[in-house]
């Protein structure tokens, strides 16, 4: 049975920069052989739940100000319309055609660079409560036993207004929040995580919540949490990866 994963995707430059997180995701993919991936990305926000039924999702370059090499990146992984239709029925989700935003294609291009594993994108319904997002994960959890890899792609910390040079150390207000989340996950203190907005320095690390919320979906889809990776980029982007086995 595959785990569910929460992946901190950080900057789109993760696709090109040989950082510790980049190297870790390349190795992580070698240990996994899913039949398909179901990904919930912080960069597909919606009011109601949606599922992409696209058979050939395009690579969306939903960013600006980066080197041309990043815009030339393509991730031609196939969609899986039959799985998408099944998810639409299971979750009462709206069917749409949509490509891969960078929250999906950047980490997946490192994990599965041959782009042969089918990928279905689910939207992030940002007006849902924390409890509803965990429940969404719970409804997906049975698919893990069928070889489906469920990924929540966001960022453990995500305050772009405070970005520092790439190799800057993590300031205390970022470290405090990251440690709080890690401790609660490892101790399986889900009630505390359902109220994560009250954690120390939560607002400073997440001026808006969308990059934290995929963690709740991944948590709901799995069981016991373990931290697979921790590093920091630009001082304020904790690149943590968690597995829910």
TrEMBL record:
What is the species of this protein? Vreelandella titanicae
What SUPFAM superfamilies would the database entry show?
Answer: LigB-like (SSF53213)
Q: Does the keyword Oxidoreductase apply?
A: yes
Show where the Extradiol ring-cleavage dioxygenase class III enzyme subunit B domain sits: 5-231
Instruction: State the UniProt keywords alphabetically.
Output: Dioxygenase, Metal-binding, Oxidoreductase, Zinc
Required cofactor names: Zn(2+)
The beginning of the lineage is:
Bacteria, Pseudomonadati, Pseudomonadota, Gammaproteobacteria, Oceanospirillales
Q: Name one Pfam family in it.
A: LigB
Query: Molecular function terms in GO for this entry?
Result: ferrous iron binding; oxidoreductase activity, acting on single donors with incorporation of molecular oxygen, incorporation of two atoms of oxygen; zinc ion binding
Which protein family is it in? Answer: Belongs to the DODA-type extradiol aromatic ring-opening dioxygenase family.
This chain belongs to the protein called Dioxygenase
Transferase: present as a keyword of the record?
no
């Amino acid at each position: 049975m595959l785990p569910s994963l929460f992946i901190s995707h950080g900057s789109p430059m993760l696709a090109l920069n040989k950082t510790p997180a980049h190297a870790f995701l390349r190795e992580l993919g070698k240990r996994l052989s899913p039949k398909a991936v179901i990904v919930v990305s912080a960069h597909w926000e919606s009011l109601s739940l949606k599922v992409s039924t696209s058979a050939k999702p395009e690579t969306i370059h939903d960013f600006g100000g980066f080197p041309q090499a990043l815009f030339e990146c393509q991730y031609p992984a196939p969609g899986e319309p039959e799985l998408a239709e099944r998810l639409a029925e299971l979750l009462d989700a709206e069917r749409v055609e949509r490509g891969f935003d960078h929250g999906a294609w950047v980490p997946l291009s490192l994990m599965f660079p041959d782009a042969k594993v089918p990928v279905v994108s689910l939207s992030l319904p940002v007006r849902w409560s924390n409890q509803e997002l965990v429940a969404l994960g719970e409804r997906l959890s049975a698919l893990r036993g069928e070889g489906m890899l469920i990924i929540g792609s966001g960022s453990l910390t995500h305050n772009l207004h405070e970005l520092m040079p790439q190799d800057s150390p993590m300031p205390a207000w970022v470290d405090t929040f990251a440690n709080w989340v890690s401790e609660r996950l490892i101790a399986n203190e889900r009630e505390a995580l359902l109220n994560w907005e009250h954690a120390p320095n939560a607002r400073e690390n997440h001026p808006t919540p969308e990059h934290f919320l995929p963690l709740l979906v991944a948590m709901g889809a799995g069981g016991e949490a373990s931290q697979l990776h921790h590093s920091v980029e630009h001082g304020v982007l904790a690149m943590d990866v968690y597995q829910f086995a």
